[in-house]
């Protein structure tokens, strides 16, 4: 789809300097711009590229003074970075604006759904499923019995949503994610063999949650595994049974949270963090990448290491860690000197 500079300026409430009929059909970095592309300049570090870019249209701040000739049509706005972000969102909406029900598919006769549904080919909707308005479900998605999905959700290709899962409004679930698989519950007997403990709870995902590709969220043994409003989960994260993650917490890739742990609000958790089970993590906690958490954590703590300790203590200790060979060499020399009298 092509847009002219005049159309883009109208969307962004901007002013055109140059050719209002200049057309673009793709987005690009300013240093990589080519004919037919749209770019932006907000960081002064990239100013030189404004005079060399081949992009057809460039968004800049109104207060930016151009002191050389440019080959690109300019759109001047109050905040170039924010304006470009608005266009990215607009572009994404257009890109995802699929509609209709593709063939082949299966929708149970007892399932209901609102207006604006897109249901991709080879997708499955089980008994008593309820889906809100303007939901987009891409091909090869499985939705089990009694699942509820709110309005304006996007479920990308290959997602599996097990029975009884409850999903709020404006939720994005990326490809390969599995919602509601059994929790890891097994009971050993006196022979050392394991019997499976039935997992009869569910998963609740509240509004405005984003779930990354190949992330798994297990159903509760009893009750619910709960992902609260505004949580952001990266790719390849494991959330175990009966875990609760507080509002607006963000977790980076490859993190694992063991069963029945409660994580507070507005926490930031780095990649490859391991969190043991049955713990309580407070609000606004920050955990650095590759840390191991084996204890309860109070509000506002910042942790690093495995097992994790205070972030400031870790940094002080690290000075000694990296100098350990030199320190040991000094100690050995002192011991020899003492022993030799």
TrEMBL record:
PANTHER family, alphabetized: UDP-3-O-ACYLGLUCOSAMINE N-ACYLTRANSFERASE (PTHR43378), UDP-3-O-ACYLGLUCOSAMINE N-ACYLTRANSFERASE 1, MITOCHONDRIAL-RELATED (PTHR43378:SF2)
Residue numbers annotated as active site: 241 (proton acceptor)
UniProt family annotation: Belongs to the transferase hexapeptide repeat family. LpxD subfamily.
Assembly: Homotrimer.
One CC-aspect GO term: membrane
Protein name: UDP-3-O-acylglucosamine N-acyltransferase
One protein family per Pfam: LpxD
Keywords: Acyltransferase, Lipid A biosynthesis, Lipid biosynthesis, Lipid metabolism, Repeat, Transferase
């Amino acid at each position: 789809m092509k847009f002219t500079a005049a159309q883009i300026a109208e969307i962004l409430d901007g002013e055109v300097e140059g050719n209002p009929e200049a057309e673009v059909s793709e987005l690009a970095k300013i240093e990589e711009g080519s004919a037919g592309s749209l770019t932006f300049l907000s960081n002064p570090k990239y100013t030189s590229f404004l005079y060399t870019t081949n992009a057809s249209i460039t968004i800049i701040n109104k207060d930016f003074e151009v002191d050389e000739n440019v080959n690109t049509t300019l759109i001047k706005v109050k905040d170039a970075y924010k304006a470009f972000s608005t266009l990215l969102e607009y572009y994404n909406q257009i890109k995802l604006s699929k509609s209709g029900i593709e063939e082949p598919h299966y929708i149970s006769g007892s399932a209901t759904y609102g207006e604006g549904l897109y249901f991709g080919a080879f997708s499955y909707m089980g008994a008593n499923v309820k889906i809100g308005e303007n939901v987009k479900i891409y091909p090869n998605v499985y939705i089990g019995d009694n699942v509820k999905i709110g309005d304006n959700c996007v479920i990308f290709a290959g997602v599996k949503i097990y029975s009884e899962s409850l999903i709020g409004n404006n939720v994005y679930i990326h490809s390969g994610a599995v919602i509601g698989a059994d929790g890891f519950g097994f009971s050993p007997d006196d022979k050392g063999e394991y019997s499976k403990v039935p997992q009869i709870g569910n998963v609740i995902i509240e509004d405005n949650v984003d779930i990354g590709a190949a992330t798994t969220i297990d159903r509760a043994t009893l009750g619910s595994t709960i992902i609260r409003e505004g949580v952001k989960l990266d790719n390849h994260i494991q959330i175990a049974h009966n875990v609760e993650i507080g509002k607006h917490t963000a977790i980076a890739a490859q993190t694992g949270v063991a069963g029945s742990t409660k994580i507070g609000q507005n926490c930031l958790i780095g990649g490859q963090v391991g969190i043991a089970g049955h713990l309580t993590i407070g609000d606004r906690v920050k955990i650095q990448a590759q840390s191991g958490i084996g204890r309860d954590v109070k509000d506002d703590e910042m942790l690093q290491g495995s097992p994790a300790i205070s972030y400031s203590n870790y940094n002080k200790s690290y000075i000694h860690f990296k100098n350990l060979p030199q320190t040991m060499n000094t100690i050995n020399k002192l011991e020899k000197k003492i022993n030799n009298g």
